[in-house]
Every structure is written in C-alpha cells, then in structure tokens.
Amino acid sequence: MSEAVLELRNIARHYREGLARLDILTDINLRICRGETVALIAPSGSGKSTLLHIAGLLERPDSGETLICGAPTSRMNDGERTRLRRSAIGFIYQFHHLLPEFSALENVALPQMIAGLGGAEARARAMELLDYLKLSARASHRPFELSGGEQQRVAIARAVANAPQLLLADEPTGNLDPRTADHVFETLMTLARNTGLAALIATHNLELAEKMDRRVTLRDGRIEEL
Ligand code: ADP
Ligand code: MG
C-alpha cells in the first residue's frame, strides 16, 4: 500500500451550543495517497469545513489522529503544526482571502518568503506559477482589479507556491459562475495531475466531482465512499 499523504484516523469533533452538544464528526477515517484527487460532497452544515480545517492542521479534533505524509500531528505543539502546514499543505477557501493591499504576484510570493525564501527568488517563482496559470498579464494587479475566476486562480497559485504534497480546498468554485467554475476546476486538476499532489476538495458540483478519482460524503459524522 502506498503511503498516504493525508490520513485521518478516528477523528471526532463536537461543538457546544448553549446546553446542546453538536456531534459534527464522530468517527472519520480517510486516506488519500500521492496523486489522488478526492471530492467531498455533503450538504451544508454536515461538517465539510470542520473536516478540512482538521486535515489542514488549522483546528484540533477532540480525539483521533491526523497524519501528514505519515507523521502523526496530535502531539505536535502549535509551532510544529504551523511549520508542517506551511511546508506540506496548501489551502484554498471559497472566498479567495487574498490580501487586498498586495498585488497578485506579492500574494503568491509572500507565503514563500514567510517559509524562508529570499524575496527575488520568491517573486521569480511566483511569476512562473502565475505564468503557468495564464495570469502573468495580471501579476501587478491587486485583487479588486481581478475577476472572480482570476482571484481564485491566484489563490490556487498561492496555495501551491510552497510545493505542498497536500491540497485542501473548501468549495473553491462555489462562488463562481458555471463557466468560470469549470475553468478554475480544470486548472486545479491539471495542477494536481502534473505535480502528483494529493487533493481533497469539498464541492457541491457533481459534474466536477465526477472528474476526480474518488468521491466521498459525510453521513452521521462518518466518511462514506460514493
Ligand atoms: P459545512 O462546511 O459542511 O457546511 P461546517 O463544518 O462549517 O459544515 O459546520 C458543521 C456544523 O458545525 C454546523 O452546524 C455549524 O453550525 C457547526 N459549527 C461549525 N463551527 C462551529 C463553531 N466554531 N462553534 C459552534 N458550532 C460550529
Ligand atoms: Mg463549509
């Protein structure tokens, strides 16, 4: 069995709402290997974002283990988790979360500089990525000067700027019109195929989900293959 890039073992997560206890994730088990693309299709409120945040080391589960490239993370401190997240994981949100006061190029270069790369090198690599995503003519534009699809493609470039092994995306095309969604999705898939990325993508778009290797859903806080 090839090593999983992401493995979730017996993950549980609940929230409290007043006196009520909401069991969102009860026993999540999921493995995603190198080069594998997995769609997460489940209704709103079923726990997709919670699951992605736990897989992305942005949130800790109540119990269970998240393994990134075989490394268990539950006993890591916050600094260790942050370092691992920055080097191994790219995250794409439904709303791009680009920094409004920076250009497209700077938005893609910044995470690399935070990871320790020099400015010139980071900018050169950012330009290469923007070029690859057919955005080089937009490099100096700030987010508000870009269309929704362009903003989301810049967010994709930013997510993969540090050459992560794992890409997590939370309804990345949920905010786009169908044609733009197709284009952004194709960009994501091409990138995953050409770089051997493992990807977990939450989406409501069944047509796009059909183009991925596997489809899973959440039922009663557990993963079910579709
Ligand atoms: P999805 O992404 O599938 O729409 P979420 O993971 O965002 O689902 O949320 C799952 C459930 O957990 C929802 O009912 C939501 O209201 C609840 N929830 C999410 N985050 C919190 C929180 N920080 N505190 C309390 N409840 C939360
Ligand atoms: Mg969500």
Structure description:
A hairpin with a 2-residue loop joins strand 1 and strand 2 (20-33). The two termini are 21 Å apart. Helix 3 (104-114) packs across helix 4 (119-132) and helix 5 (148-160) runs parallel beside helix 6 (178-195). The model has no long low-confidence stretch (mean pLDDT 94). This protein has helices at residues 48-55, 78-88, 104-114, 119-132, 148-160, 178-195, 206-209, and strands at residues 4-17, 20-33, 37-40, 63-68, 71-72, 89-92, 166-170, 198-202, 214-219, 222-225. The protein is globular and about 50 Å long. With 226 residues, it is of the alpha/beta class. 35% of the residues lie in helices and 28% in strands. The chain has a 6-stranded mixed beta sheet, with helices on both faces. The protein has 7 helices and 10 strands. It binds adenosine-5'-diphosphate and magnesium ion. Magnesium ion binds at residues 48-49, 170.
Provide the fold topology.
Blueprint: E1 4-17, E2 20-33, E3 37-40, H1 48-55, E4 63-68, E5 71-72, H2 78-88, E6 89-92, H3 104-114, H4 119-132, H5 148-160, E7 166-170, H6 178-195, E8 198-202, H7 206-209, E9 214-219, E10 222-225
Parallel strand pairs: 3-8, 3-9, 6-7, 7-8
Antiparallel strand pairs: 1-2, 1-4, 4-5, 9-10
Bound molecules: adenosine-5'-diphosphate and magnesium ion.
